[in-house]
Amino acid sequence: MLRRICTNAVYIGKRAYEEDGKEVLVKGDWPAIVDEELFWKARNLLADPSRKTTRPGRAKYLLAFFGTCDVCGAYLARLGGREVNRYRCNGPKGCVTIRMDWTDMFIGHLVCQRLAKKDIFELLTKHDDTKKDLAIELEKLRASYQEALDMMESEEISLRAFSVKEKKLLPRIAELEETLRPVTIPKVLEDLTRDARGNLATIRTRWMALDIPAQRDVLRTLFKSIRIRKTKTLGQHKTDEQIEYMLRERIAFEWVNE
Ligand SMILES: [Zn+2]
Q1: CA 76–ligand 1 middle distance (angstroms)
Q2: pLDDT score recorded for residue 183
């Protein structure tokens, strides 16, 4: 029932019809009864593959396809096949690699310190309403992208047709995501800080207890970017001090709203 309401364009005052096999929305002559931004959000949520019970592709690594390579801008991916996992630039050059356990630990420190700030929620929620139209556009584009993906998977369109569409959609999606800061605080973030009164140890314990998908939600809310720089210091990092120094040198980041 919820699904039917949420995916029916009538509720945002629009009429859907089909043109060349595509769904086209035009303004209907009735008033919208639900908020348009919410409508697209719900529609994307319901189409989200992670909602399926098997949860394919559930994130296993904290920074994979979130953090980027500082050299070429490609996402980081996991580099396996060694005694310890590493993150590796997923671009053609594989510009950088860095130990995963150390990097995740370092990011965890940053997160907990940030959440121990008293005004963290005010900081995160400041935004202006002029971004509303952009938010609607973003949700629409995400819906089109998901639709194209679904059509390719069910072989209604070719891989080639999908790539064309993807090339058109993704840059704008990325641009809008950059412009639109998160304005809602995920529940997990509230759980981390509730009654902690800035106590770092409490926040830290809770952070460690979270699974990776939940930790990634927190990162998405807090960070504008996390980038891995090329190594400057060659050789072994043995002591804690050496490791920390190396991580400070190599991990660049930007907070949201700062
Ligand atoms: Zn790279």
Answers
A1: 8
A2: 55
